[in-house]
Design brief:
This protein is mainly α and 546 residues long. 44% of the residues lie in helices and 5% in strands. Helix 3 runs antiparallel to helix 7, helix 7 (105-130) runs antiparallel to helix 8 and helix 17 packs antiparallel against helix 19 (474-486). The model is unreliable at 1-31 (pLDDT under 50).
Length: 546
Amino acid sequence: MHRLNRVLSGVLVAVAVGACSDALNVTNTNNPDRVRVYARATDIEALISGAYNSVHNGTFGTDGLAPSARTMSWENASNLANWGLGPRSAIPRSLIDNTRGNPYQGENQADFNATSRASRSAADGLNRMIRGGVTLGSAAQDARAKAFGWFVLGVGMGYLAMDYDSGTIISPYDELGVIPDLVGYAEVNVGALAALDSALTWTATSTAATAAGGTNGFPLPNTWINGYAPTAADFIKLVRSYRAYFRANVARTPADRAAVAWATVAADAALGITTDIMVTIGSGWSMTGNQWWLYAQWHQLHQLIGGMADSTGVYPAWLASANKTQFLIVTADRRFPQGTTRAAQITNSPAVPVGTIPAVRPYFRNRSTADPDAAPWSSYYDWYRMMFWRNASNTGPYPVFVKAQNDLLRAEALIRTGQIPAAAALIDISRVAAGLPALAGVITTATDVVPGGAGCVPHVPQAPTYLTTACGTIMEAMKWEYRMETMFVSYVSQWYSGRGWGDLPEGTAVHWPVPYNEMDTRRHPFYNLGGVGSLGGSVGKGNYGY
């Protein structure tokens, strides 16, 4: 029977060869190639315009590495095993298990796959326009699509470089179907920044074409970044903010972060976003985190971080205690519920915070329900800044890149370049709005401490024992604002910055390994990263003694 099939196959091949002058030129319509699939202008524009959705859903919209990266960086506390929340935040820190069948293999690969696929989609669309010569209809429309394609390519590779120790540089100039080799994260970051440079160039080209009478240029259609339709000027600001963000946050160690080109970061951030970037969630645009709102065990403010707002002296006692229990945080910071008793703070924790982003207050509630057992890191406080969004069935505009994040990154750049008064003014934007005393006019050097006396924010654990506290410097004031303002409205930014600031506990993984699935496909050995004394783990005690 098998022999007969082979004979018949040979006959069919012979007939096919006899019927065609060149059998190799016969198009197999059951196995289409990407060049033919991406031949129509409408398909190419759809490919490019839909690529940011893949980046968003693969970072903000997936329970991949983000949940455990947040607990690893003190952004929140949980002892649950789900997504590695408790296991990966336990001290001493453990490694990122990347062996076959590991309990978090799905989470380990989710972000890698999503950012890589989004980058590939953007590059394929650009390829057909650049190498294939396909036009979408006008010079302005072509340039707009190229600007957006390069932007998504840059964002996709930028996140890949910040998350994993290795990745791929995807180029639209390569033949479709080329599988690039893995390279180190620093090289991927260079590729991401170059792509963002190209996005700026093509935005200017689209603007010029529109000014000359072209059609279908900027603003972007509001479906490309759902609910957000930036003009060319606004899109340039967004690209510059991402460029500053990726340049600074690719650093894995304090030495790496100190070596960042901070003057360049400051210049980009100064021309960056001036409003919060909101993405409308729903209709194919997702936002993970349903468990944030379950609170008990799933999420709470980390007491090591929250305690830095304490004005009563309880925080240093907690640091020195062998049996760490929850304590009341009494603070002038209005992002916390006000009151000197728990009953008062519960009363001052409205069902929904008052105001709209960014003026909503408070960010945290003192819960009225039973407290979870998540010692030693548990607190009375739940983050609920976006409760109004949660109550709208998790739909509607959600901030994904807030102005404060850009302002505070710029402030860090100014601190690192010795421009202390200018940095203080930027930090004060969110600090004073929260009810804390201004730094401007008080802080003039990098070693001056924040005003407020016993009520200063932040109080910071002090070396060598880390059992006492003192008012923080301008750097710590910047870090406090960054933590408060980016919590759960940014994709793991506190893990990125924490490793560069040197705040993470010893052995915390500073990046994820390339998932074993990808390594198997490439026929390379897979590996683990992180853990005390191991490759990929932060070295030495962090700035807060762990």
